[in-house]
Amino acid sequence: MSRIGRKPVELPAGVEFSQNDNVVTVKGPLGQLEKELPRLIKVELQGDQVIVSRDEDTKEKRSLHGLTRTLVANMVEGVTKGYTKTLDLVGVGYRANKQGDNVVISIGYSHPVNIVPPAGIELEVPVPTKIVVKGIDKEAVGSIAANIRAVREPEPYKGKGIKYDTERIRRKVGKTGK
After folding, report:
1. Which CATH class is domain 3-80?
2. Domain boundaries, the chain
3. What homologous superfamily does CATH list for 83-164?
4. Who contacts 7 (Cβ-Cβ below 8 Å, separation ≥6)?
5. The whole model's pTM is what?
6. In what order do the strands lie in the sheet with 83-90?
7. What is the pLDDT of residues 12-57, one digit of tens each?
């Protein structure tokens, strides 16, 4: 039995959980999330807990059990606390500016790069060398942060580029002279 899948998901005060067929909706103080879950796994509300269970012990159902529970837990955490990812711009002249909802990044190219956030995602620039991605959907926040990082990934020789604040760049030694 999946250890993660067996744990019930606690619903804090102010969070509403509803299910229509295999579509789960979670409403909370920060907003509402909706996700279609696999049909093979049973999700039910018991009091102030969400219980995820499976009826058979097949390989496919075992693999989906923990995943489904984690998806529901991430939805509950998203509508209560939200998610953030912080990106650092490392390099001389690398900076970001906020223009309306968009962020314009000067990252060493001949042109500035304009980042347009999708609905439900908020971009902040507290310092010209930091970008904070905020939202209630963990998947969307991670995806936007990865897309921003992909504009100029950090390189291993000088460490320049866009990196996550928790990321550590493994540095390589450059060429040696004769």
Report:
1. alpha beta
2. 3-80, 83-164
3. Ribosomal protein L6 (3.90.930.12)
4. 69
5. 0.89
6. 121-124, 130-135, 83-90, 161-164
7. 999 999 999 889 999 999 999 999 998 889 999 999 999 999 888 8
